[in-house]
Design goal:
The complex is a heterodimer of chains A (117) and B (109). Chain A is 0% helix and 47% strand. With 117 residues, chain A is mostly beta strands. With 109 residues, chain B is mainly β. Chain B has no helices and 11 strands. In chain B, strands 2, 4, 5, 9, 10 and 11 form a 6-stranded mixed β-sheet that branches. A 5-stranded antiparallel β-sheet of chain B has the order 1-3-8-7-6, with no helix packed on it. In chain B, a hairpin with a 6-residue loop joins strand 4 (31-37) and strand 5. Classes of the chains: A mainly beta (117), B mainly beta (109). Chain A binds chain B through residues 4, 31, 33, 35, 40-45, 48, 56, 91, 93, 95, 98, 100, 102-106, 108-111, and chain B through 2, 4, 6, 30-31, 33, 40-45, 48, 88, 90, 92, 94-102, 104.
């Protein structure tokens, strides 16, 4: 069965440009997460979708970052006016419908390595 | 600032040695996960510990959750070169994960 896939695997852009990063979750997973992992650090939470809606976007660093999941499956992370500090690996994860009293395992994609020159 | 502090950040050992990685926090989590991440890949879940004081074993890996559910440890017995990688702990509150900074382990043959 297919796992979480992310495209592109690598993206090099220039400062000030706009980029879109795509995530295809595991089929049937209603929850989707975006994380950012800087070099030598652990993943940092950005945003969490339950279905089509953003249930928690408290991790987005500023209004240049935006994510959508219009049909409750594929998600796109959008970064406007990119800055060199945005360079990182952007990870996507998905999980089954979250339960209020227990934790559902998150399955991670391989990430998109974004380099802003 | 990481809510979960992992130590050590880097560890280089010889094959056959034992090691322990620590994950500490001032916050209580409903569960704690340990992940392993290889270069160019996403983290892969190794284990989830839920109950304070819980100990889980996965072959040569032993995971322990602190009594107060704020800290955890990962002990590897007789490390092998195949254990090389980045080990991450992550605390869960509901469905949200907070990751530690990771421990990069290198096991030399």
């Amino acid at each position: 069965g297919a796992g979480v896939s992310q495209t592109p695997s690598n993206k090099v852009t220039e400062k000030g440009k706009y980029v879109e990063l795509r995530c295809d979750p595991i089929s049937g997973h209603t929850a989707l997460y975006w994380y950012r992992q800087s070099l030598g650090q652990g993943p940092e939470f950005l945003i969490y979708f339950q279905g089509t809606g953003a249930a928690d976007d408290s991790g987005l660093p500023n209004d240049r970052f935006f994510a959508v999941r219009p049909e409750g499956s594929v998600s796109t992370l959008k970064i406007q006016r990119t800055e060199r500090g945005d360079s990182a690996v952007y990870l996507c994860a998905s999980s089954l419908t979250p339960k209020t009293s227990s934790y559902n395992e998150q399955f991670f994609g391989p990430g998109t390595r974004l380099t802003v020159l | 600032t990481q809510l979960l502090e992992q130590s050590p950040q880097f560890l280089s050992i010889q094959e056959g040695e034992n090691l322990t990685v620590y994950c500490n926090s001032s916050s209580v989590f409903s569960s704690l996960q340990w992940y392993r991440q290889e270069p160019g890949e996403g983290p892969v879940l190794l284990v989830t510990v839920v109950t304070g004081g819980e100990v889980k074993k996965l072959k040569r890996l032993t995971f322990q959750f602190g009594d107060a559910r704020k800290d955890s440890s990962l002990h590897i017995t007789a490390a092998q070169p195949g254990d090389t990688g980045l080990y991450l702990c992550a605390g869960a509150r509901g469905n949200m994960l907070t990751f530690g900074g990771g421990t990069r382990l290198m096991v030399k043959p």
